[in-house]
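Hi support team,

I'm filing this because I wasn't sure whether my run with pyridoxal-5'-phosphate finished correctly. The job status page said complete, but I'd like someone to confirm that the output block is well-formed before I use it downstream. Pasting the exact inputs I used:
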Amino acid sequence: MNEPILEREQQLFFHTYKRLHLEVERGEGCYLFTKDGTRYLDFFGGIAVNALGYNHPRLCRAIEEQIHKYIHVSNYFVQQPQVKLAEKILSASKFQRIFFTNSGTEATEGAIKLARKWGKSLGKTQLFGLSNAFHGRTMGALSLMDKQKYRDGYEPFVENFGHLKFNDVDELRRAVNEKTLGVFVEFVQGEGGIFIVSQEYARELQSLREKYRFLIIGDEIQSGVGRTGKLFGYMHTGVTPDIVMMAKPIGGGLPLGAILGNDRVAETFTYGVHGTTFGGNPVACAAGLVVLEEVLDKGLMRHAEEIGVYLSARLMQLKKDFPALVTDVRGFGCMIGLELSMDGQAVVDAMQRRQILVNCTNVNVLRFVPPLIITKEQCDDLITALRSVFEDLKK
Ligand SMILES: Cc1ncc(COP(=O)(O)O)c(C=O)c1O
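And here is everything the job wrote out:
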Protein backbone atom coordinates (compact mmCIF):
# COMPACT_ATOMS: atom_id res chain seq x y z
CA MET A 1 0.00 0.00 0.00
CA ASN A 2 0.86 3.67 -0.10
CA GLU A 3 2.95 3.75 3.13
CA PRO A 4 2.94 7.56 3.60
CA ILE A 5 -0.79 7.48 4.38
CA LEU A 6 -0.11 5.06 7.25
CA GLU A 7 2.61 7.37 8.56
CA ARG A 8 0.25 10.32 8.33
CA GLU A 9 -2.40 8.36 10.16
CA GLN A 10 0.08 7.59 12.96
CA GLN A 11 0.83 11.27 13.40
CA LEU A 12 -2.77 12.42 13.29
CA PHE A 13 -4.74 9.93 15.34
CA PHE A 14 -4.71 8.66 18.89
CA HIS A 15 -3.19 5.21 18.55
CA THR A 16 -6.34 3.26 19.39
CA TYR A 17 -6.46 1.09 16.26
CA LYS A 18 -3.98 -1.32 14.77
CA ARG A 19 -4.79 -0.74 11.10
CA LEU A 20 -4.40 -3.30 8.35
CA HIS A 21 -1.78 -2.38 5.77
CA LEU A 22 -4.41 -2.03 3.06
CA GLU A 23 -5.92 1.02 1.45
CA VAL A 24 -9.38 0.09 0.32
CA GLU A 25 -10.71 1.72 -2.81
CA ARG A 26 -14.09 0.03 -3.16
CA GLY A 27 -16.14 -3.02 -2.33
CA GLU A 28 -18.38 -5.30 -4.37
CA GLY A 29 -20.42 -8.12 -2.84
CA CYS A 30 -18.09 -10.02 -0.50
CA TYR A 31 -14.92 -8.54 -2.02
CA LEU A 32 -12.81 -5.50 -1.24
CA PHE A 33 -10.48 -3.95 -3.81
CA THR A 34 -7.37 -2.01 -2.85
CA LYS A 35 -5.91 0.93 -4.77
CA ASP A 36 -3.53 -1.31 -6.70
CA GLY A 37 -6.49 -3.39 -7.92
CA THR A 38 -5.93 -6.43 -5.67
CA ARG A 39 -9.11 -8.26 -4.74
CA TYR A 40 -9.65 -9.56 -1.20
CA LEU A 41 -12.38 -11.94 -0.05
CA ASP A 42 -13.72 -10.32 3.11
CA PHE A 43 -14.65 -12.46 6.12
CA PHE A 44 -14.52 -9.38 8.37
CA GLY A 45 -17.77 -7.99 6.98
CA GLY A 46 -16.99 -4.64 8.61
CA ILE A 47 -16.99 -6.61 11.89
CA ALA A 48 -20.40 -8.17 11.44
CA VAL A 49 -21.94 -5.01 9.99
CA ASN A 50 -22.17 -5.47 6.21
CA ALA A 51 -24.92 -8.09 6.09
CA LEU A 52 -25.73 -7.37 2.42
CA GLY A 53 -22.11 -7.01 1.29
CA TYR A 54 -20.65 -4.01 -0.51
CA ASN A 55 -22.37 -1.87 -3.10
CA HIS A 56 -25.72 -3.62 -2.74
CA PRO A 57 -27.97 -1.99 -5.38
CA ARG A 58 -31.19 -1.79 -3.31
CA LEU A 59 -29.30 -0.53 -0.28
CA CYS A 60 -27.46 2.16 -2.24
CA ARG A 61 -30.68 3.24 -3.94
CA ALA A 62 -32.58 3.56 -0.64
CA ILE A 63 -29.77 5.68 0.84
CA GLU A 64 -29.61 7.90 -2.20
CA GLU A 65 -33.38 8.41 -2.33
CA GLN A 66 -33.54 9.38 1.34
CA ILE A 67 -30.58 11.75 1.07
CA HIS A 68 -32.48 13.78 -1.49
CA LYS A 69 -35.54 13.97 0.77
CA TYR A 70 -33.86 14.93 4.06
CA ILE A 71 -30.67 13.79 5.78
CA HIS A 72 -31.54 15.00 9.27
CA VAL A 73 -34.43 16.79 10.92
CA SER A 74 -34.06 15.76 14.63
CA ASN A 75 -36.29 13.69 16.84
CA TYR A 76 -38.75 16.56 17.27
CA PHE A 77 -40.16 15.27 13.99
CA VAL A 78 -41.94 12.04 13.16
CA GLN A 79 -39.91 10.45 10.36
CA GLN A 80 -41.29 7.89 7.97
CA PRO A 81 -38.08 5.82 7.63
CA GLN A 82 -37.90 5.47 11.44
CA VAL A 83 -41.54 4.42 11.73
CA LYS A 84 -41.26 1.90 8.89
CA LEU A 85 -38.11 0.33 10.34
CA ALA A 86 -39.65 0.25 13.83
CA GLU A 87 -42.74 -1.53 12.48
CA LYS A 88 -40.58 -4.06 10.68
CA ILE A 89 -38.36 -4.83 13.69
CA LEU A 90 -41.18 -4.98 16.23
CA SER A 91 -43.47 -7.11 14.08
CA ALA A 92 -40.65 -9.57 13.37
CA SER A 93 -39.43 -9.69 16.97
CA LYS A 94 -42.71 -9.38 18.93
CA PHE A 95 -41.33 -6.69 21.22
CA GLN A 96 -43.56 -3.76 22.22
CA ARG A 97 -41.38 -0.66 22.01
CA ILE A 98 -38.21 0.59 20.35
CA PHE A 99 -35.70 3.42 20.85
CA PHE A 100 -33.12 4.16 18.14
CA THR A 101 -29.50 4.97 19.02
CA ASN A 102 -26.38 5.70 16.94
CA SER A 103 -24.26 2.77 18.02
CA GLY A 104 -24.04 -0.44 19.98
CA THR A 105 -22.57 1.05 23.10
CA GLU A 106 -25.31 3.66 23.21
CA ALA A 107 -27.86 0.85 23.02
CA THR A 108 -26.12 -0.68 26.05
CA GLU A 109 -26.20 2.63 27.93
CA GLY A 110 -29.86 3.12 27.09
CA ALA A 111 -30.69 -0.44 28.18
CA ILE A 112 -28.93 0.18 31.52
CA LYS A 113 -30.94 3.35 32.02
CA LEU A 114 -34.20 1.63 31.01
CA ALA A 115 -33.54 -1.18 33.47
CA ARG A 116 -32.60 1.20 36.30
CA LYS A 117 -35.68 3.34 35.84
CA TRP A 118 -37.87 0.24 35.71
CA GLY A 119 -36.35 -1.19 38.89
CA LYS A 120 -36.27 2.00 40.95
CA SER A 121 -39.77 1.78 42.43
CA LEU A 122 -39.34 -1.97 43.01
CA GLY A 123 -36.16 -1.55 45.07
CA LYS A 124 -34.15 -3.52 42.52
CA THR A 125 -30.63 -2.20 42.06
CA GLN A 126 -28.14 -4.93 41.16
CA LEU A 127 -27.14 -5.48 37.54
CA PHE A 128 -24.97 -8.36 36.36
CA GLY A 129 -22.90 -8.96 33.27
CA LEU A 130 -21.31 -12.28 32.30
CA SER A 131 -17.59 -12.90 32.13
CA ASN A 132 -15.84 -12.55 28.78
CA ALA A 133 -18.72 -10.48 27.36
CA PHE A 134 -18.37 -7.33 25.26
CA HIS A 135 -21.00 -4.59 25.49
CA GLY A 136 -19.16 -1.52 24.23
CA ARG A 137 -16.69 1.15 25.30
CA THR A 138 -18.71 3.66 27.33
CA MET A 139 -18.58 3.64 31.14
CA GLY A 140 -21.84 1.75 31.69
CA ALA A 141 -20.84 -0.90 29.17
CA LEU A 142 -17.36 -1.23 30.73
CA SER A 143 -18.95 -1.58 34.17
CA LEU A 144 -20.85 -4.63 32.91
CA MET A 145 -17.71 -6.24 31.50
CA ASP A 146 -15.04 -8.09 33.46
CA LYS A 147 -12.08 -8.06 31.07
CA GLN A 148 -9.13 -5.99 32.31
CA LYS A 149 -8.03 -5.41 28.73
CA TYR A 150 -11.00 -3.06 28.25
CA ARG A 151 -11.36 -1.72 31.83
CA ASP A 152 -7.81 -1.02 32.91
CA GLY A 153 -7.26 2.62 33.87
CA TYR A 154 -10.92 3.65 33.66
CA GLU A 155 -11.85 3.11 37.31
CA PRO A 156 -14.07 3.93 39.16
CA PHE A 157 -16.96 2.12 37.49
CA VAL A 158 -20.70 2.53 37.84
CA GLU A 159 -22.10 1.25 41.17
CA ASN A 160 -24.16 -1.90 41.67
CA PHE A 161 -22.68 -3.84 38.78
CA GLY A 162 -21.43 -7.39 39.29
CA HIS A 163 -19.95 -10.11 37.08
CA LEU A 164 -21.02 -13.72 36.81
CA LYS A 165 -18.98 -16.53 35.36
CA PHE A 166 -20.22 -17.43 31.88
CA ASN A 167 -22.38 -20.60 31.92
CA ASP A 168 -21.79 -21.22 35.65
CA VAL A 169 -25.29 -22.20 36.79
CA ASP A 170 -24.39 -22.64 40.48
CA GLU A 171 -22.90 -19.18 40.73
CA LEU A 172 -25.95 -17.70 39.01
CA ARG A 173 -28.23 -19.36 41.56
CA ARG A 174 -26.16 -18.02 44.46
CA ALA A 175 -25.90 -14.48 43.06
CA VAL A 176 -29.43 -13.44 42.15
CA ASN A 177 -32.20 -12.47 44.59
CA GLU A 178 -35.04 -9.96 45.10
CA LYS A 179 -32.58 -7.06 44.74
CA THR A 180 -31.47 -8.21 41.30
CA LEU A 181 -32.46 -5.73 38.64
CA GLY A 182 -31.21 -7.57 35.60
CA VAL A 183 -28.69 -9.80 33.90
CA PHE A 184 -27.06 -8.71 30.64
CA VAL A 185 -26.39 -11.65 28.35
CA GLU A 186 -24.56 -11.84 25.05
CA PHE A 187 -26.10 -15.16 24.08
CA VAL A 188 -23.48 -15.70 21.36
CA GLN A 189 -20.33 -13.91 22.48
CA GLY A 190 -18.62 -12.24 19.53
CA GLU A 191 -15.51 -10.34 20.63
CA GLY A 192 -15.02 -12.93 23.37
CA GLY A 193 -14.39 -15.65 20.78
CA ILE A 194 -17.79 -17.14 19.77
CA PHE A 195 -18.92 -18.75 23.01
CA ILE A 196 -22.57 -19.77 23.26
CA VAL A 197 -24.79 -19.65 26.35
CA SER A 198 -25.68 -23.24 27.26
CA GLN A 199 -29.28 -24.49 27.23
CA GLU A 200 -28.95 -25.32 30.92
CA TYR A 201 -27.79 -21.79 31.78
CA ALA A 202 -30.57 -20.24 29.71
CA ARG A 203 -33.21 -22.45 31.38
CA GLU A 204 -31.96 -21.56 34.85
CA LEU A 205 -31.84 -17.87 33.99
CA GLN A 206 -35.44 -18.09 32.85
CA SER A 207 -36.68 -19.86 35.95
CA LEU A 208 -34.78 -17.48 38.27
CA ARG A 209 -36.33 -14.55 36.42
CA GLU A 210 -39.76 -16.00 37.19
CA LYS A 211 -38.84 -16.40 40.84
CA TYR A 212 -37.22 -12.99 41.43
CA ARG A 213 -38.87 -10.91 38.69
CA PHE A 214 -35.63 -9.41 37.34
CA LEU A 215 -34.99 -8.47 33.71
CA ILE A 216 -33.02 -10.45 31.15
CA ILE A 217 -31.28 -8.06 28.78
CA GLY A 218 -29.95 -9.57 25.56
CA ASP A 219 -27.04 -8.03 23.71
CA GLU A 220 -27.81 -8.89 20.07
CA ILE A 221 -25.59 -6.16 18.67
CA GLN A 222 -23.31 -8.63 16.89
CA SER A 223 -25.48 -11.76 16.75
CA GLY A 224 -28.76 -10.10 15.71
CA VAL A 225 -30.54 -9.50 12.39
CA GLY A 226 -30.30 -13.06 11.12
CA ARG A 227 -26.53 -13.48 11.38
CA THR A 228 -26.82 -16.74 13.28
CA GLY A 229 -29.57 -18.10 11.02
CA LYS A 230 -32.25 -16.84 13.41
CA LEU A 231 -33.40 -13.26 13.93
CA PHE A 232 -31.59 -13.16 17.29
CA GLY A 233 -28.92 -15.30 18.92
CA TYR A 234 -31.08 -15.91 22.00
CA MET A 235 -33.49 -17.88 19.81
CA HIS A 236 -31.01 -20.76 19.85
CA THR A 237 -31.36 -21.03 23.62
CA GLY A 238 -35.10 -20.99 24.29
CA VAL A 239 -35.07 -17.89 26.53
CA THR A 240 -36.61 -14.57 25.48
CA PRO A 241 -35.14 -11.41 27.02
CA ASP A 242 -37.21 -8.46 28.26
CA ILE A 243 -34.89 -5.94 26.64
CA VAL A 244 -32.75 -6.41 23.52
CA MET A 245 -29.91 -4.27 22.21
CA MET A 246 -29.25 -4.12 18.48
CA ALA A 247 -26.74 -2.27 16.26
CA LYS A 248 -24.05 -3.24 13.71
CA PRO A 249 -26.03 -4.47 10.63
CA ILE A 250 -29.31 -2.64 11.23
CA GLY A 251 -28.17 0.55 9.52
CA GLY A 252 -26.75 -1.22 6.45
CA GLY A 253 -23.30 0.20 7.34
CA LEU A 254 -24.58 3.58 8.55
CA PRO A 255 -24.48 4.25 12.30
CA LEU A 256 -27.65 2.94 13.92
CA GLY A 257 -28.58 0.98 17.02
CA ALA A 258 -31.77 0.14 18.88
CA ILE A 259 -33.20 -0.86 22.22
CA LEU A 260 -36.27 -3.10 22.18
CA GLY A 261 -38.49 -3.61 25.21
CA ASN A 262 -41.37 -5.96 26.03
CA ASP A 263 -44.59 -5.11 27.85
CA ARG A 264 -42.86 -5.23 31.26
CA VAL A 265 -40.80 -2.14 30.43
CA ALA A 266 -43.00 -0.57 27.74
CA GLU A 267 -44.17 2.33 29.91
CA THR A 268 -40.82 2.99 31.66
CA PHE A 269 -39.35 5.57 29.32
CA THR A 270 -41.59 8.65 29.27
CA TYR A 271 -41.20 12.10 27.72
CA GLY A 272 -37.78 13.61 28.19
CA VAL A 273 -36.20 10.83 30.28
CA HIS A 274 -33.96 9.65 27.45
CA GLY A 275 -33.02 11.05 24.04
CA THR A 276 -30.49 11.57 21.28
CA THR A 277 -29.80 14.08 18.50
CA PHE A 278 -28.71 11.66 15.78
CA GLY A 279 -30.14 8.32 16.92
CA GLY A 280 -32.58 6.96 14.34
CA ASN A 281 -31.10 9.01 11.52
CA PRO A 282 -33.56 8.75 8.59
CA VAL A 283 -30.90 7.75 6.03
CA ALA A 284 -29.67 4.96 8.33
CA CYS A 285 -33.26 3.85 8.95
CA ALA A 286 -34.05 3.79 5.20
CA ALA A 287 -30.96 1.61 4.74
CA GLY A 288 -32.00 -0.56 7.70
CA LEU A 289 -35.38 -1.28 6.17
CA VAL A 290 -33.69 -2.74 3.09
CA VAL A 291 -31.43 -4.86 5.31
CA LEU A 292 -34.38 -6.25 7.29
CA GLU A 293 -36.40 -6.92 4.12
CA GLU A 294 -33.53 -8.74 2.44
CA VAL A 295 -32.72 -10.77 5.56
CA LEU A 296 -36.27 -11.66 6.57
CA ASP A 297 -38.34 -11.62 3.37
CA LYS A 298 -35.84 -12.54 0.67
CA GLY A 299 -34.39 -15.65 2.26
CA LEU A 300 -31.04 -14.33 3.46
CA MET A 301 -31.53 -15.60 7.01
CA ARG A 302 -32.20 -19.11 5.74
CA HIS A 303 -29.13 -18.80 3.53
CA ALA A 304 -27.02 -17.75 6.55
CA GLU A 305 -28.22 -20.83 8.40
CA GLU A 306 -27.24 -23.10 5.49
CA ILE A 307 -23.86 -21.41 5.18
CA GLY A 308 -23.27 -22.02 8.87
CA VAL A 309 -23.94 -25.73 8.54
CA TYR A 310 -21.69 -25.97 5.47
CA LEU A 311 -18.82 -23.86 6.80
CA SER A 312 -18.86 -25.55 10.23
CA ALA A 313 -18.64 -28.98 8.60
CA ARG A 314 -15.71 -27.91 6.44
CA LEU A 315 -13.94 -26.32 9.43
CA MET A 316 -14.52 -29.48 11.48
CA GLN A 317 -12.71 -31.39 8.74
CA LEU A 318 -9.77 -28.98 9.12
CA LYS A 319 -9.83 -29.61 12.87
CA LYS A 320 -9.58 -33.36 12.14
CA ASP A 321 -6.75 -32.85 9.67
CA PHE A 322 -4.77 -30.40 11.84
CA PRO A 323 -5.51 -31.48 15.43
CA ALA A 324 -2.38 -29.79 16.79
CA LEU A 325 -3.39 -26.42 15.33
CA VAL A 326 -7.19 -26.32 15.51
CA THR A 327 -8.79 -26.91 18.90
CA ASP A 328 -12.45 -26.03 18.38
CA VAL A 329 -15.14 -24.88 15.95
CA ARG A 330 -18.10 -22.92 17.41
CA GLY A 331 -21.03 -20.80 16.28
CA PHE A 332 -24.04 -20.63 13.99
CA GLY A 333 -24.80 -19.20 10.57
CA CYS A 334 -22.43 -16.45 9.52
CA MET A 335 -20.89 -16.17 12.98
CA ILE A 336 -18.35 -18.93 13.34
CA GLY A 337 -15.17 -19.18 15.39
CA LEU A 338 -12.18 -21.40 14.76
CA GLU A 339 -10.09 -21.74 17.90
CA LEU A 340 -6.38 -22.26 17.40
CA SER A 341 -3.74 -23.65 19.73
CA MET A 342 -1.61 -20.60 18.92
CA ASP A 343 -1.86 -16.82 18.62
CA GLY A 344 -3.92 -16.21 15.48
CA GLN A 345 -1.99 -13.21 14.13
CA ALA A 346 0.39 -15.32 11.99
CA VAL A 347 -2.60 -17.04 10.38
CA VAL A 348 -4.36 -13.69 9.77
CA ASP A 349 -1.23 -12.33 8.06
CA ALA A 350 -0.74 -15.47 5.97
CA MET A 351 -4.41 -15.36 4.91
CA GLN A 352 -4.04 -11.73 3.87
CA ARG A 353 -1.12 -12.73 1.65
CA ARG A 354 -3.57 -15.20 0.06
CA GLN A 355 -6.04 -12.32 -0.42
CA ILE A 356 -8.51 -13.40 2.22
CA LEU A 357 -9.29 -11.10 5.15
CA VAL A 358 -10.07 -12.78 8.45
CA ASN A 359 -10.20 -11.34 11.93
CA CYS A 360 -8.70 -12.83 15.07
CA THR A 361 -10.37 -12.15 18.40
CA ASN A 362 -9.53 -13.12 22.00
CA VAL A 363 -5.93 -13.89 20.88
CA ASN A 364 -6.52 -17.29 19.32
CA VAL A 365 -9.98 -17.40 17.75
CA LEU A 366 -10.39 -16.74 14.03
CA ARG A 367 -13.80 -15.10 13.76
CA PHE A 368 -15.71 -15.44 10.50
CA VAL A 369 -18.50 -12.84 10.28
CA PRO A 370 -18.86 -12.34 6.51
CA PRO A 371 -21.76 -10.70 4.70
CA LEU A 372 -24.80 -13.01 4.83
CA ILE A 373 -24.68 -13.20 1.03
CA ILE A 374 -21.46 -15.24 1.17
CA THR A 375 -21.58 -18.34 -1.04
CA LYS A 376 -20.47 -21.93 -0.48
CA GLU A 377 -17.84 -21.44 -3.20
CA GLN A 378 -16.41 -18.47 -1.29
CA CYS A 379 -16.36 -20.60 1.86
CA ASP A 380 -14.44 -23.21 -0.15
CA ASP A 381 -11.88 -20.52 -1.05
CA LEU A 382 -11.49 -19.76 2.66
CA ILE A 383 -10.97 -23.44 3.49
CA THR A 384 -8.43 -23.94 0.68
CA ALA A 385 -6.41 -20.96 1.90
CA LEU A 386 -6.61 -22.02 5.56
CA ARG A 387 -5.48 -25.52 4.61
CA SER A 388 -2.47 -24.14 2.77
CA VAL A 389 -1.57 -21.85 5.72
CA PHE A 390 -1.85 -24.77 8.17
CA GLU A 391 0.30 -26.99 5.89
CA ASP A 392 2.97 -24.27 5.94
CA LEU A 393 2.78 -23.92 9.71
CA LYS A 394 3.25 -27.70 10.12
CA LYS A 395 6.52 -27.63 8.20
C1 LIG B 1 -21.93 -7.69 21.38
C2 LIG B 1 -21.52 -6.27 21.23
N1 LIG B 1 -22.06 -5.35 22.03
C3 LIG B 1 -21.73 -4.05 21.91
C4 LIG B 1 -20.82 -3.61 20.97
C5 LIG B 1 -20.49 -2.16 20.85
O1 LIG B 1 -20.98 -1.65 19.67
P1 LIG B 1 -20.40 -0.28 19.06
O2 LIG B 1 -18.98 -0.54 18.67
O3 LIG B 1 -21.30 0.04 17.90
O4 LIG B 1 -20.49 0.75 20.14
C6 LIG B 1 -20.22 -4.55 20.13
C7 LIG B 1 -19.20 -4.14 19.14
O5 LIG B 1 -18.36 -4.88 18.74
C8 LIG B 1 -20.58 -5.91 20.26
O6 LIG B 1 -20.03 -6.85 19.47
